[in-house]
Fold this sequence. Notes:
Shape: globular
Largest sheet: 7 strands, antiparallel
Number of helices: 3
Structural class: mainly beta
Radius of gyration: 23 Å
Amino acid sequence: MPDAHSQPPEPPLPVYTGAAAPFRGGDPYADYRTADHPFLHHPDLAARELGGAVIAANDEFFAERENLLNPGPAEFDPARFGHKGKVMDGWETRRRRGPDAGRPHPVADDHDWALIRLGAPGTIHGIVVDTAHFRGNHPRAVSVQATAVLGCPGPEELLADGVTWTELVPLTPVGGHAANAFHVRGGQRFTHLRLRQYPDGGIARLRVYGEVVPDPAWLTALGTFDVVALEHGGRIEDASDRFYSPPVHTIRPGRSRKMDDGWETRRRRDDGHDWIRYRLVERAEVRAVEIDTAYLKGNSAGWAELFVQDGPDQPWTAVLPRIRLQPDTNHRFVLAHPVVGHRVRLDIHPDGGISRLRLHGALTADGAARLRTCHREAGG
């Protein structure tokens, strides 16, 4: 009999094998294959906005390696050709050949590779190798390894004999013009990935979904920092509405540069209000608050109020009373008395949006201790 406490096996993710049909005109995404994968609510640790980069590749003859981390879906222009052939929005290598006329095909282990630095080191829950618009020129299979190396190593250091690589995705067939998804189990903290494609071909995007595991020594040295920032390990727990844009935008690095770079809800037709609930990097003392409505002009939230909770069974304590928000404005508030907590809820009335929330403060002694333990247990 199965153990009463054992967890049921997770359902397998959809698998996309083989090539998609050739493009015959119309919407290039009409036959694109994807699914609502369970790890997509986590941030992309390799995102350029967090500092991710493709630092090296053995070949990028047709299309540059940097395209792998471009934000947004890959674009396709069927009429665009260059001196080397079709211009693709992805990473594409030349066709591999065997050693001689008698052996014209690549051998089984022939592959191309790219090295990726995660913008925010952390634990990985899922990887998407997206072959959008690569239909007859996608790789036969891929694999992904990861490592954790201190500092800012270059390609030579990462490829040195003494570096240990952990296999996250074994050699696995992939489909063309599809979001090939791989669930990753384990709680180890990684800083770099090695993506391999067999034997050659093109990949449009690489997404690495996981949880940020910040360096506690760095945060301690900073003293006061944004304790809800995505790059520091803050995250979204829930939100009332995700209709126009996701709430995670509110804790992204930098300032919003356009309207959809913030969080905007649909127009309410009831007497309720919208909200976002956040978890801070760890228990912290918040001293100052910024609520930014940049680029939200006719659709910014009318009013906002902020609450802090210092434990799952504790009440929500008001930090900011309901305050009037101005469109396209960064509102700054120095708290009369610092407040301590691990979770924060931002309520907006009645609807609309904000672009960023910043909570400036410092870790408490017990919060810093737990963060050091988490970092150590994850291999940091």
